[in-house]
Amino acid sequence: MMKHIFSLFFLTLSMAVFSQVKPGIEVLRDNNFDILKGKRVGLITNPTGVDNDLVSTVDILAGAADVELMGLYGPEHGVRGDIHAGDHVANAIDEKTGIPVYSIYGKTRKPTPEMLKDIDVLVYDIQDNGCRSYTFISSMGLAMEACAELGKEFVVLDRPNPVGGNIIEGNLVEDDCVSFVSQFPIPYLYGLTPGELACYLNEEGLIAGGKKVRLKVVPMEGYRRDMDFRDTGMPWVMPSPHMPSPESVVYYPATGILGELYFLSIGVGYTLPFKLICAEWIDAGNFAGRLSARNIPGVEFRPIHIKPFYSTGQGKNLQGVEIYITDRIKAPITMIQFHAMEILADMYPQGRIFENADEKRFNMFDKVCGSKEIRERFSQNYKVADIEDYWNKDNESFRRKSSKYHLYK
Length: 409
Prior knowledge:
The chain is α/β, with parallel strands linked by helices.
């Protein structure tokens, strides 16, 4: 009897580990590309646009019968992922397919009428990281806007929200902080898949002055809202160089806002991007002890000593903490960095970050936060309590509003 129970347990575990969510591109292919047949197609994608066998969506559509792939559109990092973060993406010809590649990251971020004149439908297939400040959803929204203005169809091949579809944190973007890292009035962690977000933007009148695009979403199969990326069984392809694993996605919102100040190392330039908070003047043991004493739900800390290979603190002996998010549902992910900033301000004179960091970085910090209020309130006393309510004030109203566009349970 016991042997049977163990066999059943391991069979169930094996099925859980190896079950795979089907991304939108596979569902589209299973349906013989029906919504694209006979149409001239453009594709916005990058290396994350692959099926579960790691075949590129570019190559899948280029080889599809009765589908004419006319153009590729390169967001940040480029269609084939050969452009470094922040670098200009140039117009080119894709070497493998011979198809023109148009840049939508550089001087042009919204596809122009000239770029779209030879297509009937623009397809979007990118694995996002579920965080507002990542530029791919900005590219998606601006492309939707261009298609709405020109009467073109827009199709989203859906992919998971790798943090999970139930986590919402951060105030809505305010008018004076709208930018390419905060293009739309949504929370910092918005809890939607790309397809759901496209529906939200379209139906809530947030693109093209309220004009709607002819939108179709090809949903995934087997996806649930409570999944993080590891639960999907899908292969992870880096959406950008500092996202080497699905784990990186959960830590990005924990330190990425702080990282915009380039004052402390957050592990970018070391082997643990977004997982660290370190500086030359920090005592690792004391800092880790103070953070651990807060008993932040779902988070643990340990002292660490590093020497970054590049970026902030390059070649210097730094120390601080390594962050462990043990329960992403319970953890106040985005608040972790502010707890650290509060403790550092209390421990060290140079820890009062807004009195010591380069003021030229404050504008980007505000844009990523989506509001100047976060910096202005926090810098008064360096207390999490002074910003927590403001940061979370829109969460439940957005949750209710956005739930109308859920495609998955």
